[in-house]
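Re: beginner question about structure tokens

> Can someone show what the tokenized structure looks like for a real chain? I only ever see the sequence side.

Sure, here's an example I had lying around. Input first:
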Amino acid sequence: MTESVLIALISAGFPTIATTITALLQRRSSEKHAAKQSIMQMILEDHVAVSEGHLPTNYQNILHEYDIYHKNGGNSYVTEKVENYKTWFVKVQGGKK
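And the corresponding structure tokens:
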């Protein structure tokens, strides 16, 4: 009797654990992708704003999204883009003061 209960628990438990792990991995991937898209969009928005004679406004939001991206396993591609943006931002801010 106990052997059949144990088998039933194992049979029910493994799919539940696998589903939970898959959901967590999917969420992490989704958050990373959303943060990457947000970062790239905000960088573009700031470049367009400067080309139209305005100051960039997304610096803090980009850094916030980058933290999310990095926390969820982001790679060096976006890191390079953010570092280039930060350098560009300092130059733009210095030229407008």
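Each token stands for a local structural state, so reading them left to right follows the chain. The mean pLDDT is 90.
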